[in-house]
What does this fold into?
Amino acid sequence: MQRPALDNYQIVLAQQVGSDQVAGYACYARTPFTRAASDLYWLATHPQHRRFGIARQLIATMEAALAKEGIEHVRVETSGTGGYSAARSFYDRCGYQNIARIPDFYKPGDDLYTYYKRLHLDAA
It folds into this structure.
């Protein structure tokens, strides 16, 4: 599988008001060999800034930017362990569907969950 070129990565930052501290970020890129798809590689929020809607804002900003570029599909992969249950619930709440699960993908007992969302381009 071809990895995206470094210049293909897009990063959205959320910064604490009045500070240089990063409150969260999203990193995504066009999916190689596709016409209109993107992968969300990382979504992270600083522990002090969780539960304030920052991750949802980052997702909304990413989706709006992708829709303006004509991207229709967004894919996210995450772990099936208990430590990622909040992430899986978050993607569900953001309208992403769990479309696949591969048992023991990362290691025994750690499944790979794939989430997907089709963007509405007319909303861009």
